[in-house]
Design goal:
By secondary structure, this protein is an alpha+beta fold. Helices cover 30% and strands 18% of the residues. The chain is built from 16 helices and 20 strands. Strands 4, 11, 12, 13, 14, 17 and 18 form a seven-stranded antiparallel sheet that branches. β15 and β16 form a beta hairpin. The longest helix is centred in the last third of the chain and has 23 residues. The protein starts with a strand and ends with a helix.
């Protein structure tokens, strides 16, 4: 038997890399959605050309249609495709009241769509965790070795070590450069008020040769045709190509886990045909994402009707008006990921940081204006573009202690077990956002931008996709908690490695710590298995994907093609 990793997002990729890197046979079980072949072919072709040679049709194809989420914000697609979201609701129905619950069945998970912002946590951020920054430091370095890092040495290092030498340093846009110059001029006064700043740190690979690297095409928010923005599917591809003991098995949705006789049974249903299967694993590292992992664990433990708390980092948007114009921002060659990070550390406001990501011009501004104004847009376009030159946007995040929370309950239903989500408000969140806005307004001349209070909007719980904590790690775990290796009480060989095990969700970016913690747990598992292996028979070669599927179907307790409900009834 071999270890199984469930899920191919950042947590699954980091865990699989840690296992495979130590010679551990590993199978990654995944729903495995992929970009349509015709879109992949088009992007491969465009990735071989300079962006200035792309046609108008090529640009339109990269952007795709403009679609909106439940809050009226643009829904992120990949090169115009919604493939990351497909089939999730069909296989994992979820009922949410005043909650945004982003989930994905894509190979690579939601990293196919993310903004690539990365920061580690420091000891202050890890207050309440059963480990410290030093425990994660080598695993931050390992995670950044997978993702790449665009960064520069600046004052952010006081709060957040780099851990590795950057692989790139993307140039700041004209708007961002003007802000950075103003911020640096007043750095001492800003630090005195608990305002820290620096260039955004981004999970970007960097050039492998002089002609490689970011082409500054300005389309980052739609996907990168030049494959510069890290996504976890690239790690899966690398492991498939280079690690002899690694197998990737797509098309499977995990229903529940059963541990017995020193092994773990993984009960699945196929994504396409609905066939049931049971895989046998020596260990399972669960990395399906917070909502899916929570459902799987609650169903595996038989816990129905009992709510668990999913913690989240309150997410808000705040437009800022530059005190000086950045001419021709709409025509500038630039990247459109986050440009600047601001950290607010005033303990009179909160013992926790407020994390702010500054975004400059991107063409969503014009597209959204056109969608709202219709025929008037052409008439107003020159005036709007001049306004866009003075507009930047802050995406802000609060610590989960200062944020609303999500209550998740596993319930039975006609379509099988499902999660029901509801919001638990925290009045401190809105007050803290207002306080942050006042701090920025008071320092507008030093920052070079004034917050526009009328445009500030706090998202629904979960909207920032910084969520976790349903099975928090504890030094002495209780019921529905996990130990330092992510093992829920009652399990010995099941390890949850995504943010479901975070005791809190600090304000700084979450993905890098998800990867580092998954790498930490997987490394410990590999070392434990290596120690056990000193007394065991030589390991068999890792079975092929076909052999794994054949064995799993033989072990299925219900007839092939049985529904998930039949399996639930049988259990």
């Amino acid at each position: 038997m071999v270890a199984f990793v469930v899920g191919s997002g950042p947590a699954g990729a980091a865990a699989a890399a840690a296992l495979a890197g130590r010679g551990q046979p590993v199978v990654m079980l995944d729903a495995g959605g992929e970009l349509e072949p015709d879109v992949r072919q088009r992007m491969a072709r465009l990735g071989e050309q300079a962006p200035e040679s792309w046609s108008a049709d090529d640009h339109a194809a990269v952007r795709g249609p403009l679609r909106f989420n439940s809050e009226g914000a643009p829904l992120k697609l990949l090169f115009g495709s919604d493939f990351p979201y497909r089939d999730v609701e069909r296989h994992e129905p979820l009922y949410a009241r005043e909650v945004d619950a982003y989930r994905s069945f894509a190979l690579g998970g939601l990293s196919r769509l993310w903004g690539a912002s990365v920061l580690p946590y420091g000891d202050e951020d890890l207050d309440g965790w059963p480990l410290g920054a030093a425990d994660l430091a080598p695993h931050y370095a390992a995670a950044l070795g997978l993702t790449g890092l665009s960064a520069t040495r600046d004052d952010l290092e006081v709060l957040f070590p780099l851990h590795v030498e950057p692989t790139a340093d993307l140039p700041a846009s004209g708007q961002a450069q003007a802000l950075l110059e103003r911020l640096r001029k007043h750095a001492r006064a800003l630090r005195g008020q608990g305002i820290w700043f620096g260039k955004a740190r981004l999970a970007v690979k960097g050039p492998q040769a002089p002609a490689d690297g970011c082409r500054l095409c300005g389309l980052c928010l739609y996907g990168c045709a030049y494959d510069q923005i890290y996504a976890a599917h690239t790690t899966v591809a690398d492991l498939t190509a280079t690690a002899p003991g690694f197998r990737y098995l797509p098309g499977q949705v995990v229903r529940r886990l059963v541990e017995k006789d020193g092994r773990v049974e993984i009960h699945t249903v196929s994504r396409e045909g609905g066939e049931n299967a049971v895989f046998q694993a020596s260990r399972v590292l669960l990395a399906a994402g917070v909502f899916s992992s929570t459902r799987i664990l609650l169903e595996s433990l038989g816990v129905y009707g009992r709510p668990v708390t999913i913690r989240q980092s309150e997410h808000f948007l705040m437009p800022m008006w530059l005190t000086a114009s950045a001419p021709r921002a709409a025509q500038e060659r630039q990247h459109t990921l986050s440009q600047i990070f601001l950290e607010l550390t005033d303990r009179k406001r909160s013992p926790h940081k407020v994390h702010l990501q500054v975004y400059g011009y991107n063409d969503f501004y014009g597209r959204m204006a056109k969608a709202k104004l219709g025929g008037l847009y052409g008439l107003l376009r020159p005036m709007l573009e001049r306004a866009f030159e003075r507009l930047v946007l802050i995406k802000g995040y609060l610590h989960s202690d200062d944020s609303a929370a999500i209550e998740a309950t596993l319930e039975r239903g006609q379509r099988g077990p499902h999660l029901e989500l509801s919001a638990r408000a925290n009045p401190a969140a809105a007050a803290l956002v207002r306080s942050a806005a006042r701090t920025l307004k008071r320092n507008a001349s030093r920052i070079g931008a004034m917050p526009l209070g009328f445009g500030t909007r706090i998202g629904l719980p979960g909207s920032g996709v910084h969520v976790g904590g349903s099975f928090p790690m504890r030094a002495e775990p209780g019921v529905l908690e996990t130990d330092l290796l992510g093992r829920p009480t009652g399990f010995e060989r099941v390890h949850c490695v995504d943010s479901s095990v975070f005791p809190t969700v600090p304000a700084p970016t979450v993905t890098l710590t998800i990867m580092a913690n998954a790498h930490r747990i997987a490394t410990a598992c590999a070392e434990a298995d290596a120690f056990e292996g000193l007394r065991a028979e030589p390991a068999e070669p890792t079975p092929s994907v076909e052999e794994l599927v054949a064995r799993a179907r033989e072990l299925t307790r219900a007839p092939a093609g049985a529904s998930t409900n039949q399996l639930d009834d049988a259990s």
